Amino acid sequence: SVSASGMTANAYRVDKRAAERARWEEASKETIKKTTKPCPRCNVPIEKNGGCMHMKCPQPQCKLEWCWNCGCEWNRACMGDHWFDV
């Protein structure tokens, strides 16, 4: 439509499904940030779902074994100091 000033007014429609997907995606990113830690080597998000602090990256090209508590490569100190920390 053309207004009195001669300018064209564009009507913008919100794609409700796209908006919903964007909200879910943002919520998912927040959850990932809160419930995971990045692998110290490859940075893929890793979720700890119980057990001890000994983590192993699931990425086939990485497989780093590391400590959830201190983020270091898994070592004897981690094993002795905080194997079962909560």
From TrEMBL:
Pfam families reported in the protein's UniProt record: IBR_2 (PF22605)
Keyword annotations from UniProtKB, A to Z: Autophagy, Cytoplasm, Metal-binding, Mitochondrion, Phosphoprotein, Repeat, Transferase, Ubl conjugation, Ubl conjugation pathway, Zinc, Zinc-finger
Protein's UniProt keywords contain Nucleotidyltransferase: no
Protein's pathway: Protein modification; protein ubiquitination
One GO BP: protein ubiquitination
GO-annotated cellular components: cytosol; mitochondrion
EC number: 2.3.2.31
UniProt protein name: E3 ubiquitin-protein ligase parkin
Family: Belongs to the RBR family. Parkin subfamily.
One annotated GO molecular function: zinc ion binding
Matches recorded under SUPFAM superfamilies: RING/U-box
Occurrences of domain RING-type (ranges): 1-86
UniProt xrefs under CDD domains: Rcat_RBR_parkin
PANTHER family in the cross-refs: RBR FAMILY RING FINGER AND IBR DOMAIN-CONTAINING
Protein localization: Cytoplasm, Cytosol; Mitochondrion
Catalyzed chemical reaction(s): [E2 ubiquitin-conjugating enzyme]-S-ubiquitinyl-L-cysteine + [acceptor protein]-L-lysine = [E2 ubiquitin-conjugating enzyme]-L-cysteine + [acceptor protein]-N(6)-ubiquitinyl-L-lysine
